[in-house]
Write a structure and sequence with these properties.
The structure is a single chain. By secondary structure, the protein is mainly alpha-helical. The chain has two domains: 57 residues, no CATH class; 52 residues, no CATH class. 56% of the residues lie in helices and 8% in strands. The chain is built from five helices and three strands; from the N terminus they run αβββαααα. The protein has a three-stranded mixed β-sheet with strand order 1-3-2, covered by helices on one side. Strand 2 and strand 3 form a beta hairpin. The longest helix is centred in the middle third of the chain and has 34 residues. The protein is elongated and about 75 Å long. The protein starts with a helix and ends in a 9-residue tail after the last helix. The model has no long low-confidence stretch (mean pLDDT 89).
Length: 124
């Protein structure tokens, strides 16, 4: 479906005469796949070649790593803090709803919560 949408878009642009030459490209941010034309008619570009294609900078693929690492670390710290709080909240909620005072899981309550839906008698 996506490949067909791409072919349709390329055909429309070519028919409109807005562009002299249209070259559909599948750009992949990472990998060592060699640049090649696919049977579907688009150019497949990966890794360093992709970053060069969009920037004309042969070193961009390595230059972007350090800033991305800093940003990832910032987001990761917030994610881990949020995830820890969520795990704690869900653990408390689970314990209150599905555990006996001893801490053992009340499997009947848990299975009823997950599967109880008997209404077949109203259809028969």
């Amino acid at each position: 479906m996506l490949a067909q949408d791409l072919r349709n878009a390329v055909n429309r642009v070519r028919q409109s005469r807005l562009a002299a030459n249209v070259q559909p490209v599948l750009g992949i941010c990472y990998g060592k796949t060699r640049t090649a034309y696919t049977r579907a008619g688009y150019l497949k570009v990966a890794g360093q070649n992709f970053w060069y294609l969009i920037s004309e900078n042969k070193e961009l693929y390595t230059e972007i790593i350090e800033p991305l690492g800093y940003r990832a670390r910032e987001h990761n710290e917030r994610f881990l803090a949020g995830r820890g709080a969520l795990v704690n909240r869900l653990t408390v909620e689970f314990s209150q709803r599905f555990c006996a005072p001893s801490g053992a899981i009340d499997w009947v309550k848990l299975v009823e919560f997950n599967s109880e839906n008997f209404d077949l008698d109203s259809f028969l």
